[in-house]
Structure formats: C-alpha cells, structure tokens
Amino acid sequence: MSWRVTPDRVVGVGALGVAVLAPLLFSTYWVSTLLTETLFLGIVAASLVFLSAYGGMVSLAQVALYGITGFVLGNVVTNGNTKGLNLGWNPWLGVGLGIAIATTVALLLGALSSRSTGIYFLMITLTYGVIANLFFGQVTDFSGFGGISGIDAPAGIGPVTGHPNRLYYVALGVSVAVYALLRYIVRTPFGLALQGVRDDPVRMSSLGYNVMLHRTLAFGFAGFIASLGGVLFVWWNGHIDPASIDLGATIDVLIIAVIGGLTRVEGAWLGAFLYVLMLNYLPSITFLGSIGITQDRFHTLIGIVFLVIILVSPNGLIGLWERTLKLVGSSRFGRPAVEAPGGGTDV
Questions:
Q1: How many CB atoms lie within 10 A of CB 183?
Q2: Residue 155 neighbours by CB distance under 10 Å
Q3: Where do runs of H (alpha helix) occur along the chain?
Q4: What is the DSSP letter of 34?
Q5: What is the pLDDT of residue 332?
Q6: Do 158 and 238 form a contact (C-beta atoms < 8 A)?
Q7: Gap between the Cα atoms of 182 and 40, Å rounded
Q8: What is the mean pLDDT of the chain?
Q9: What is the β-pairing status of strands 148-149 and 239-240?
C-alpha cells in the first residue's frame, strides 16, 4: 500500500521536524515551559478528543484521572518534608503504580457511567472530577490542600531544572506514541465497533455488540492516555495539589480540546499550543498604559477567543484547516470539493 502525499501529512511531518529540532531553534524558556507544557496538555486533551470523536462521550473526568496519577506518584516517590505518604520508592515503580491505579479507576468510573449519554454523561464525569478534587484536598494523609512537593523525575530525565531538554524529548516521544496508538486503535475492530456504538447504539446492540462494555473499555483506555499526561505534569511541575485538578483546570482542558477541534486527535495539541501561548503572553499585555490582563480577565479573554473560534468554525482550528483545504481544492480544479467518507477532501 503506497504512502500518498497529502497536505495533512506534509504539515504533520513538517511540524514533527520542527518539534525535534526545537531545542536548536527556540530559547530554553520556550522549550522547557511552553512546548513541554503544550505536549502534556495535548496528551490529556487527546484522551478527551478520542472519547468525543470516536465514542460520542464528552468527559470532564480526564483532569481528575491525570491528577490521580500525579498524587499516587507523589506519595510513592517522595521521601522528605512534604505532605503525603513519603514512601521513597523507586520512581519507575511509582510511575507504573500511578498509571495502573488511574487506569483501574477509569475502568470503574467508565462502567458506572456507561449507560449514560449526552448531558447526563457530561454531568456524571464532572461529578467524578469534583469528588477527586475534594478527596485529595480533605484526606491529608494523601495530600491535603497544600499538596505534595519535591516530586523529581527519575535519573536520566531529571533534574528538570538542569536538563530541560530531556523532559521535552520524553514528552515529545510520548506524544508521538500516543498519537500513533490512537490512530491505530480507531482502525481496529474495537475502534470500528466503538464508532458504531457512537452512531447507533441500539442497532449495535441488536447486532450482538456489548455497548456498555465498549464504552467502559474506551473510558479506561482514555484514562490510561490521561495518566501519561499526569506523569509528565508532575515531573515538569515538581508539585501537585488539589488546585491542579480543580474545576478551572477541568474546564481549561475542555477549552483546549474544543479550540483545537473535537473531531480529530491532532486538534488536541493544536489547541494546547494556542492555549499555552495565551496563558504565558497575554498577562504581560497592558492597555491604556495600566490595564493589564489579570487571572480573572485572562479567563474572560479565553472565553471570548473560545466563542469566536466556535462561531467561525464549530470544529475548531482543525475545522478551519479542513475548510481551507476544501477551498484551495475547489479553486484549483474549478469545481466544488467533495467530502470523502473519512472526513477528508476528495477532488
């Protein structure tokens, strides 16, 4: 099967090339702060986009799941003057345990919510996020509102402050692996059946497919993806507290996914990049010499950007890209572009 050159693939290869060469092209601040944060936020948002695009489930529990991973890792690996269990175990054991516990919790939560759809599913997963935030805030044995500090990356990756490029390349490698895994999963019999469940669960059930099981497994798999982002987050931040997974953080990840586009996985990293740029540069802008963009005003501005993008393109930035390709194809060949079954453009 030949590899056909398309605009999507050209842009994708180009973006990957820039990402690989980023430490040579950009400043340390850009690599260690902006791009690394973009990568792990993109992974978390990708787990949400996967559920939405291929399972028809918009989840607000992904931040809670990556937070669970972070809290487990913090309790397991720390061994000093910080809250938590301070078990002082091997960092890689903490990583495996954090991912395993978060994935198991995701499977349990997915089973509980597998009979719900639409707004009911959204509200149930929001409840999961609130419960996780309150649990780690009030159970001081595991965290408390002060959180856990001093979470170091394993030798070879950390210390992050001294070797920021190492964590960046780890985050880049995990992002590429997650993207490839998601693209593979949606083409497997499970992925195709999940899309059938998304489109017509009653018909899929009549054909003998276990609708609840498919939704549960999809939620568990998305929890696994989110947990990878949680590991990278605590390595990058060195600290996690309940505020890291509060309602604001939950809404931020939803905004990232919607801005990028809920129809294609690539939109997760695109939305994360735009969000991180605005988060780091908008507060430094002042109007009329003294009016700055405070934290509260930042969220207002994010809301305005969110609204504008949705009004212009309901499918987010990815939708704008697809519409541009259609317009270029239409003008180039002098006839309207026809949308192919896979969502691309057939000209």
A1: 12
A2: 8
A3: 7-20, 22-25, 28-29, 36-55, 62-77, 91-113, 118-138, 164-185, 189-199, 201-206, 211-237, 247-260, 266-281, 295-312, 316-333
A4: I
A5: 57
A6: no
A7: 15
A8: 88
A9: antiparallel
At 292, the pLDDT band (50, 70, 90 cuts) reads low
Q: Are 39 and 172 in contact (CB under 8 A)?
A: yes
Tens of pLDDT, residues 296-333 = 677 788 888 888 888 888 888 888 888 888 887 665 54
Q: Are strands 239-240 and 338-339 parallel, antiparallel or unpaired?
A: unpaired
- Average pLDDT of the segment spanning 280-297: 67
State pTM to two decimals: 0.90
- The CA distances from residue 17 to 25, 128, 303, in Å, are 11, 38, 32
Phi-psi region of 86 (alpha: psi -120 to 50; beta: other; left: phi over 0): left
In sequence order, the β-bridge partners of residue 319 are: none
SS3 292: strand
Give the ranges where 21-85 is alpha helix by DSSP (H).
22-25, 28-29, 36-55, 62-77
Residue 155 · residue 167 · CB < 8 Å = no
Tokens encoding 189: 């019999």
Encoding tokens for residue 199? 């489109």
Q: What was the pLDDT predicted at 294?
A: 66
Report yes or no: 241 and 70 within 8 Å, Cβ to Cβ.
no
Tell me the pLDDT band of 148, cut-offs 50, 70 and 90. very high
State which H helix or E strand residue 240 sits in: strand 239-240
Q: What amino acid is encoded at 191 in this protein?
A: G
* Backbone dihedral angles phi then psi of residue 78, each to the nearest 5 degrees: -75, 155
**Model pLDDT for residues 183-212, shown as the tens digit of each residue:** 999 999 999 999 999 999 999 999 999 999
CA distance 187 to 209: 17
C-beta of residue 222 within 8 angstroms of C-beta of residue 48:
yes
